[in-house]
Amino acid sequence: MEPALPVAGLNILVVDDDDDSRFYITTVLEADGATVMAVASAAIALKVLPELQPDVLICDIAMPGEDGYTLIRKIRALKPDIWGKLPAIALTAYGDSEYRSRALEAGFQTHVAKPVDPGELVAIVANLVASYKS
User: Fold this and answer.
1) Do 94 and 61 touch, CB atoms closer than 8 A?
2) Which of 32, 58, 95, 110 is 20 to 30 A distant from 103 in Cα terms?
3) Do the Cβ atoms of 10 and 129 come closer than 8 Å?
4) Structural domains in the chain, sorted by start
C-alpha cells in the first residue's frame, strides 16, 4: 500500500507573477496530490478566492500592482471569520529577517525564501494545514 501523500486533497491557491515560479509550485504540489489554482496577480486571486475556497494560500511578495502584503491584508479583512483563518505562506526571493517580520505582521503564518526545495515546500504546506486543523 502506498503511503498517503502529505498534501493530498488540499485545495491550494498560488499567487505569483512569475510564470516559472507558478509552474514549479503547481507541479510540486500536484505531484503530491494537491489541487492547485495558480494565478498571476493579487486582483485575480481576490476574484477567484470566494469560489475556490482554498485550504492554503501561497503568495509571492514582490508583484507588480498589488504586492503580497496588500493581498493578504485584503483577504484577512474580507470576512475575518472565514478568511482570517486561511493558512497563508509568503514565498519570496526576499529571505532576510526584515521581510520575514513584515510578512508575519501583514497576516502570513510563515515566510519561505525562494528557491525552495520540493520536499521542503510540501512539508511546510502539510505542517501548516495540520497545525490549523488541530
Assistant:
1) yes
2) 32
3) yes
4) 33-133 (3.40.50.2300)
- Provide the 8-state DSSP code for 92: E
Q: Is the pTM of this model over 0.90?
A: yes
Which DSSP state fits 63?
Answer: -
What Rg do the C-alpha atoms of the chain give, in angstroms? 14
Distance CA 64, CA 15 (A): 12
pLDDT band of residue 1 (cuts 50, 70, 90) is very low
What confidence score (pLDDT) does residue 44 get? 97
* pLDDT band at residue 133 under the 50/70/90 scheme: confident
Cα-based angle 22, 39, 18 (whole degrees, multiple of 5): 40
